[in-house]
């Protein structure tokens, strides 16, 4: 498993092909005063497409990413699936006793999610530990190779993460993940803790409903103690998300290939699909148009193409429904703009050693609120 230095370098032909597709764009009409109710507004997409065609400079942003983030690739053998070439960011802290940290993104994120918090994690400070930072691109995301056969689920993503850390010489490490990163770092805790995975943290805590045998005390508590007004508000918000905003999850976890034809062929279709989530799941974050287009471009120019990123839903969605219990120390950070949240008493566990309630921030917390 030899490490190879990596620089993003999209072929001119791929950029020219994108420009030809943009020149042939046909935009739909829109209901009057629809706003965000029906999805990404036409005015926003028209503005982004215009910027994309005349003004956005991918080469400039490509160079900035290469300058800011030390990137590498490495072949990782996954049991039953052969060898995958995995892309990752890696930099050691100058602090002697720094802690190895694996940062794991979700969808529609990428290794870009670590970009702003990256220098803060590396620095020495009296207020927090320093970290050796590793941020991998999931198989099928960004510049990592994608699996070619069915069955590549949560255990396999966790296997890649653990083997990457061991290959880098980190026999013991901690993890952070949000969105799918939560599921994968949790699975790493279950499979590789406490020998290798020593602690894990997430900004998207997930709780399963109270169960009479799996969580009897919590089940009894919910029977005897009425829900508070704040808890009822959480349930109502989650119900609204399931009713109005979860269609993407159902589609990507059941028919990713059908959706994939649209996202792989239409740059504007992919842009709208991702932009809707960036704005809707963040907490009033002031997205700059070039930020959005760079975020999008990592998907459009990805090694396996944007369709590959959808398959994690098809392969691993069922894992969200399983018990969240882990034994190693874990920490939760709560951000008010996270689309789905849970009452704190549902999230309590004997190994929960850290909780932090933030006043602002959403689903892309490390990017929105790096401090």
From TrEMBL:
GO molecular function: epoxide hydrolase activity
Active-site annotation: 179 (nucleophile), 313 (proton donor), 363 (proton acceptor)
Any single biological process term in GO: epoxide metabolic process
Protein's UniProt keywords contain Cell membrane: no
Cross-referenced Pfam families: EHN
InterPro entries: AB_hydrolase_fold (IPR029058), Epox_hydrolase-like (IPR000639), Epoxide_hydro_N (IPR010497), Epoxide_hydrolase (IPR016292)
Assigned protein family: Belongs to the peptidase S33 family.
PANTHER family the UniProt entry points to: EPOXIDE HYDROLASE, EPOXIDE HYDROLASE 1-RELATED
Protein name, per record: Alpha/beta-hydrolase
């Amino acid at each position: 498993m030899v490490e190879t230095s990596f620089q993003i370098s999209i072929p001119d032909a791929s950029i020219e092909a994108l420009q030809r597709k943009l020149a042939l764009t046909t935009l739909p009409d829109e209901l009057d005063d629809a706003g965000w109710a029906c999805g990404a507004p036409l005015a926003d997409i028209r503005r982004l497409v215009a910027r994309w065609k005349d003004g956005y400079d991918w080469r400039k942003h490509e160079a900035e990413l290469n300058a800011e983030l030390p990137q590498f690739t490495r072949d990782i053998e996954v049991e039953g699936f052969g060898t995958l070439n995995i892309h990752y960011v890696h930099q050691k802290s100058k602090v002697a006793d720094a802690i190895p940290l694996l940062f794991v993104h979700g969808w529609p994120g990428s290794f870009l999610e670590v970009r702003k918090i990256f220098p803060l994690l590396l620095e020495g400070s009296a207020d927090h530990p320093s970290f050796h930072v590793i941020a991998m691109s999931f198989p099928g995301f960004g510049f990592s190779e994608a699996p070619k056969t069915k069955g590549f689920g949560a255990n396999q993503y966790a296997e890649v993460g653990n083997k990457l850390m061991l290959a880098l010489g980190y026999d013991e490490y901690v993890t952070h993940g949000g969105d799918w990163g939560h599921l994968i770092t949790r699975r790493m805790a279950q499979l590789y803790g406490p020998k290798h995975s020593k602690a894990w943290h997430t900004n998207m805590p997930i709780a399963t409903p109270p169960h009479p045998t799996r969580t009897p005390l919590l089940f009894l508590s919910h029977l005897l103690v009425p829900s508070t007004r704040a808890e009822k508000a959480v349930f109502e918000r989650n119900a609204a998300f399931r009713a109005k905003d979860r269609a993407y999850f159902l589609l990507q976890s059941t028919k990713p290939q059908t959706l994939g034809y649209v996202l792989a062929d239409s740059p504007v279709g992919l842009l709208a699909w991702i932009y809707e989530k960036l704005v809707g799941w963040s907490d009033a974050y002031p997205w700059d148009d070039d930020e959005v287009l760079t975020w999008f471009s990592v998907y459009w120019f990805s090694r396996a193409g944007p369709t590959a990123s959808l398959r994690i839903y098809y392969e691993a969605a069922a894992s969200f429904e399983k018990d969240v219990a882990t034994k190693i120390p874990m920490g939760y950070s709560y951000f008010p703009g996270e689309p789905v949240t849970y009452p704190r008493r549902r999230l309590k566990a004997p190994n929960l050693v850290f909780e932090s309630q933030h006043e602002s921030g959403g689903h892309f917390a490390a990017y929105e609120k790096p401090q």
